[in-house]
Model the fold of this input.
Amino acid sequence: MPATQLLDLGRFEIKLGSYAIGPATAVNNAMATAVAQDYRRGTASRMIPLGKEEIRSRVPSSDFFVSKKIDGEFTVLMFEEGVAYSINPGGTVRVGLPWLDEAAKALQAAGVSVARIAGELYVADERQRTRVHDVSTIARNPRTVEELNKLRFAPFDIIEIDGKPAAEHYADTFQTLESLFAKTDMVQPVPTEIVRDTAGIVRLFEKWVETEDAEGIVVRSDAAGLFKVKPRHTLDVVVVGFTESTDDRQGLLHDLLVAVMRADGTYHILTRVGGGFSEEQRRQLLSDLKDMVVASEYVEVNSDYVAYQMVRPKWIVEISCLDLISQTTRGGSVNRMVIDFDAEKGYQVVRRLPLASVISPQFIRRREDKQSHPEDVRIAQVSDRVEVAQIDADAKSFKLPVTEVLRREVFTKSLKGATMVRKFVLMKTNKENVSDDYPAYVVHYTDFSPNRSDPLQRDVVISSSLEQIEQLYARMKDENVKKGWVRV
Done:
């Protein structure tokens, strides 16, 4: 690992040779994770997802930079003090990778002091298309140096170089990227071509996606905007709920709530589907679904805040979508509710587990040849395309990691014959990687004073940083343990 005051080497875990990974707190720069998160969030808000059939109708006339979309992990190359490291929106920091060493040499040679460069971490394999799963497999537990050498970085944008943001025009940005990494092997800008019309976009989509099996293309134009074009995927899902349209469209289906099945037979809520129906289908489907309504302790509402009426998990429908995304813009998992069905009791809540967000879902047809069975509406339809944690867990018996008590202190004080108690507990939940519902660290403060009108008071503070939570713990204790208090 590189020796530098920039990195707290004690917080890194060595994986192989000089390659190590650490949390965001291993970098002595509190804004490092925010750089990755803010870029990803900003790009996601501006990027318009499209299918091939929408290119000519929805993309305005302009000149375009069209890039091949690499199926990997979004990450940011950080360079300062002569050291290169990478950080993703989830706060995972990587050092000592061969491509990072190569990037550092190239940036130094170009006279760059500080750089923040957005790109895709991917696995290079000339024999087949690799996916983000392959990145995770090698990055988490590399077996050989040869495997590490397969990890490559494809930059596609500049966030900042030497205190200056990216150029106003993308042509200048991409030219800078090509210049910086002209002599590198493991760091190469994403394959990009300039086209003058939408026909050129279609041509590259057919070449890279339909012929060469790329994930998709990204279309950039300073004038027209930012677009992501991907082939539509189809999924077979089970209908678990519906809502009816309101006002002048009453009597028509508004949308469906659909799920996939886990291996344990539970239903994992996937998405809502409101597009792709004809008017006649909306009328007929609504009429039939009303006869299938069952009880449910699980409640969800649609975009108009109308509660779904839950139905027997009998209908299988085929839907299409442009993309499946298994991480939030902050790098956390996309958690969806798992429910169980009983013919007499209806639906019961099980728990939330990671799944994915579905981009632009559209109804295609009923699948009367399929049944509500883990094989026909299998969750693997999602996990085959994106990485999903706890995919094989039995949702009904799945146990969360045990919380660890790091510190516990109790203080007492006698006043007017009564004993007052103040207790401080610092806990590590060990659940932060399971669900965004759980913080990494918690301080729980209890204040019991029997002579007070409200004798029992509590306070809770949370953090994702051990260093920060220890500071909060110390501050809370200093504020509440004064003269006269005795530690038990």
Notes: The longest strand covers residues 233-244. The mean pLDDT is 93.
